[in-house]
Amino acid sequence: MGRPSDAKEKLLQVAFDLIWNQSYGSVSVDHICDRAHVNKGSFYHFFPSKSDLAVEAYEVHWREKQPELDRIFSPQIPPLERLELWCKHIWERQKQKADKYGHVCGCPYASLGTEVATQDEKIRAKSQELMDRNLRYVESALRDAQREGLVSIDPHSGAKRIYSTALGLLLYAKIHNDLKVLEELEPAVMDIVGARELAA
Amino acid sequence: MGRPSDAKEKLLQVAFDLIWNQSYGSVSVDHICDRAHVNKGSFYHFFPSKSDLAVEAYEVHWREKQPELDRIFSPQIPPLERLELWCKHIWERQKQKADKYGHVCGCPYASLGTEVATQDEKIRAKSQELMDRNLRYVESALRDAQREGLVSIDPHSGAKRIYSTALGLLLYAKIHNDLKVLEELEPAVMDIVGARELAA
DNA sequence: AAAGCACTTGACCACTCGGTCAACAATGAT
DNA sequence: ATCATTGTTGACCGAGTGGTCAAGTGCTTT
């Protein structure tokens, strides 16, 4: 019922893109509306505030990307191969963005999260939530690897270490604006996984 | 000659503090001036722009903190102990900030850098420079450790890995607003250092 | 056909943004 | 005592900021 519209979807998509490769603070509601070809009045018909838009945009983006993660971390795939695929996936995604925009964009959740963590609690919490969801994939891969006797890491802390390594390298790559940094990701992850194997 | 003033120093210090525990975008020139008890006219007497202020504030902050890093990474101290001290130093600094402001602030260079990396080239470059200077301490510790036969990591890539781990955990801790995350730093660093030791 | 709803429009708001400026005040050197 | 130099003051600027709103428009249901 009522008048159909794709304005909301366009706003969410444009907002995510702009915020990811610029920043929350430097992207105004007007910019978002212009790029989405939507009037500001319509913006505030759909979203109570810029901050709510950001939260929803990131949630929607997650839901769109989830199938890909499900595929990468499918139980059909040997657990350590999942991690390998994940590293390659990160690299490809960053490469694609960097080619398109001319600079390394880093992790969208981390970029937004760290920018406003101390300012906007709703966004901070959403950012944390999305990172935690990501973490769960890594953790389950480690748990499966452990069950198969491939590694002896504690899956929980190991996943945190692996995920932090990815975050750190993405951050480093963004600030150095250098994709090559990310070539370190896969070997670093494999060393974390393998380190305890030797110690076991 | 001329009229003496500490306005510039106050602006630099206030700017660094505000930007670190809020963000570049959310801290206005007016805020900085208010807190420093300096008029905006004076601000623009000393700095051509907000962005230049930020660059200089971060450089000055580095110079102030450098002696502490020199002490931690003193050649007098066994190389692996330097890394241990460094981890503890990071923890203490974050604890102190978190106690003072009620939230984990993360790495100041990384926070500013990742926020404006794709927007402001001068700040991005300064952020990179400061990170690189930090990295050099870690690298030299690793080199000394290698010389003493304590590890067999490649100092360059090992330092990058260690530094990225620190960045990642700081980021993770900031977004989760949880200091405990940083307890992982020292063991993670020691595992990176030790991993290759076993493989050697 | 009509009513009800969902969406659109664009003008408008008070305020803040980074930045400017010309007049003025305090200092140290001569 | 003078004077260049340096720093201060605060009003001011135009362009944006996030956000509001009343009137209008086009669907779908009845």
* Rg of chain A, Å, rounded: 19 Å
SS field, number of helical segments of chain A = 9
Low-confidence stretches of chain A: none
Mean pLDDT of chain A: 95
| End-to-end gap of chain A | 63 Å
Helix content of chain A: over 70%
- Kindly estimate the percentage of residues of chain A that lie in beta strands according to DSSP: under 5%
Oligomeric nature of the chains: homodimer
Give the largest interface: A-B, 50 and 51 residues
Account of the protein in words:
- Two copies of one chain form a homodimer.
- Chain A is mostly helical and 200 residues long.
- In chain A, 74% of the residues lie in helices and 0% in strands.
- The first copy, chain A, is elongated, with a radius of gyration of 19 Å.
- The mean pLDDT of chain A is 95.
- At the A-B interface, α6, α7, α8 and α9 of A face α6, α7, α8 and α9 of B.
- The first copy, chain A, binds a DNA duplex (30 and 30 nucleotides) through α3.
Fill in the keyword field for this structure.
9 helices, 200 residues, 0% strand, 74% helix, mainly alpha, elongated, DNA-binding, homodimer
Quick take:
The structure is a homodimer of 200-residue chains. With 200 residues, chain A is mainly alpha-helical. Chain A contains 9 helices and no strands.
Protein topology:
The structure is a homodimer of 200-residue chains.
Chain A: H1 7-21, H2 29-36, H3 40-46, H4 50-72, H5 79-101, H6 108-116, H7 121-147, H8 155-176, H9 185-199
Chain A binds a DNA duplex (30 and 30 nucleotides) through helix 3.
